[in-house]
């Protein structure tokens, strides 16, 4: 009888171990109130930047010991109308250049059939970025850190060219102000574990 009980205990512990280590796929949603994204560039007169004031994002990760071992999904979108600066004329010209009326959103999604390069807590994420109706493969360099098992911080950047998406760099002041083709997107994002995934996280 004791042997049967011992075997049952061993099987129970083995099952618990396997359950914990196979339930590492977790879905995180953006906490937009504690996140920011900036588009930066230069022009013939001065540097400029625009902030994305509203966006949505979600990611599904394979996690072990606070290390991301696999990225299963990443999706992000922001309305063009919520890209803004401290100059209304710049906002107007930028929204027109981005063809807001025809393509009101900018979106990014993970390219699943491409290898992802992991280096400690830094990762290069390949994905499809859609801007002004044109989709291009881009690489986003990202560093991450777990604030807690339910809270993830990610920061990074991507260097882009407007012309790659068929966008003519905006001009102003009767053409005397011309923006350069090169831009940089910088971000600091906070993700919170979805409530439906909470049961999969150890306290």
List key phrases describing it.
alpha+beta, 203 residues, disordered C terminus
Short description:
With 203 residues, the chain is of the alpha+beta class. It has helices at residues 2-22, 88-97, and strands at residues 25-30, 36-43, 47-52, 56-64, 67-79, 83-84, 105-110, 117-119, 122-131, 134-148, 151-161, 171-172, 177-193. It has an 8-stranded antiparallel beta barrel.
Topology:
Blueprint: H1 2-22, E1 25-30, E2 36-43, E3 47-52, E4 56-64, E5 67-79, E6 83-84, H2 88-97, E7 105-110, E8 117-119, E9 122-131, E10 134-148, E11 151-161, E12 171-172, E13 177-193
Antiparallel strand pairs: 1-4, 1-13, 2-3, 2-13, 3-6, 4-5, 5-7, 7-9, 8-9, 9-10, 10-11, 11-13, 12-13
Structural class, by secondary structure, is alpha+beta
Number of helices: 2
User: What portion of residues is helical?
Assistant: 10-25%
| Spatial strand order of the main sheet | 1-4-5-7-9-10-11-13
**How many strands, what sense, and barrel or not for the largest sheet?**
8 strands, antiparallel, barrel
Rg? 22 Å
Q: Please state roughly what percent of the residues sit in beta strands, choosing from under 5%, 5-15%, 15-25%, 25-35%, 35-45% or over 45%.
A: over 45%
Q: Which overall shape is indicated by the principal axes computed on the Cα atoms?
A: elongated
Low-confidence segments: 8-23, 198-203
Task: Give the strand tally.
Answer: 13
**N-to-C SSE series?**
HEEEEEEHEEEEEEE
Summed over residues and divided by their number, the pLDDT gives a mean of 85
